[in-house]
């Protein structure tokens, strides 16, 4: 809740006029307690989990021939029931794990210094903090994911996420409840290291989930803007990890590829692509489909 009763008081405290964005934020948040602002995350996550994967799912179910050239595992066709079952399981974990975790974590948000007041951060500040959050989360997620592929971690926890050997967008948050809790640690580590405004925190949660949905979409569309992000893995990169399955020791990174390159856990993927390239050159199959996995000529 902002400590100003009017716009005039806020401008007097800042010593300047409010920007349009700050005026909108004042009108919306001035009388809302900070903990209720933080709990907006629950609503945002519900909307993202429910709506963001829906267009891809409807296209895949309704127009399979139209999107087949972009499907990474074109021989796999998930029935409609799989999408519904996946969504129900995701919502079950959301209601009983993610939601309660959000409700009890507000004191930690206040402790690390995430603020709700004025002034709002500049676009440069938001971009810099989001970059830190992505890098910190990506590094922590890499090691947690790699540990999850040890015998105990996979058999007891991580095998749930790998039930979809050909991922679908709804399966991005599909995982054992314990994995959801553990992966929340690197997701929160960035905001704890470089705390910013609540709006930045909202953006971080939303963008990270949208990125995960794209990565698990099962499609490598040529028009996705993420192709222009340096070292970004994307759907093709992560799809290979699911394609190999539980024995996979490759492509552990959640967003970027640098950890896999540094620690040598992308060798299987690079060998796979080189092998497919060689077979494609020798094959008359112009679709580039070999053993059920579609090879794409996306540059490394």
UniProtKB/TrEMBL annotation:
UniProt-listed Enzyme Commission number(s): 4.1.99.5
Coiled coil: none
Catalytic reaction equation(s): a long-chain fatty aldehyde + 2 NADPH + O2 + H(+) = a long-chain alkane + formate + 2 NADP(+) + H2O
GO biological process: lipid biosynthetic process
Chief place where the protein resides: endoplasmic reticulum
Membrane topology: Multi-pass membrane protein
A family per Pfam: FA_hydroxylase
PANTHER family the record matches: STEROL DESATURASE (PTHR11863)
Annotated protein name in UniProt: aldehyde oxygenase (deformylating)
Annotated source species: Canna indica (Indian-shot)
